[in-house]
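Give me structure tokens for this 189-residue protein.
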Amino acid sequence: MERQLQKTITKCLKNDRQAQFDLYQLSFEHLMRTCRRYKRNREDVVYLVNDGFLKILLNLETYDNSRDFFAWASTIMVRTAIDDYRKNKTYTEETDLKDSDADLEFASLKKGHEQIIEQLTAEEIQDMIFNLPENERLVFNLYESEGYQHREIAEKLNVTERTTKRYLKAAKLKLKKMIEAHSDLKKVI
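Here you go.
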């Protein structure tokens, strides 16, 4: 597979349309998985994949073939999701002066939550994440899934680090409530 991928990339660099289609086919599922973290409905996910794939093709000459292609492509997809968010949203920064920055870092789980989380399916977890407001979901995914630091997220979204910390804390608190509600629902059933 790796050898086939490298041959396809080499052909893409020569503007071979069939190779570009083949690369799209080879990477489509991986790119869809990455973009599903940022958009709920399939049409929006496919739009992001297509937009991101065009960026992949346009920047393919910068790809270092000693690196994993799919990791490189995922980075472009995440940036495409961020660009899409910036393009479609206006930012509002809320500041609550009674919160210190240290308070914004953590939202701890109660005992037993780890067990509940382990019992949740991937689809249930994804649904909970998609029930978050878009700005909180984006920051949560960038921080928890992609491993970006608050400084990096703030730069990408043109907000302050404090704002990204607030969004992350709000997302975690809402997820915590959803987990508790899910636990209470399981007890009733």
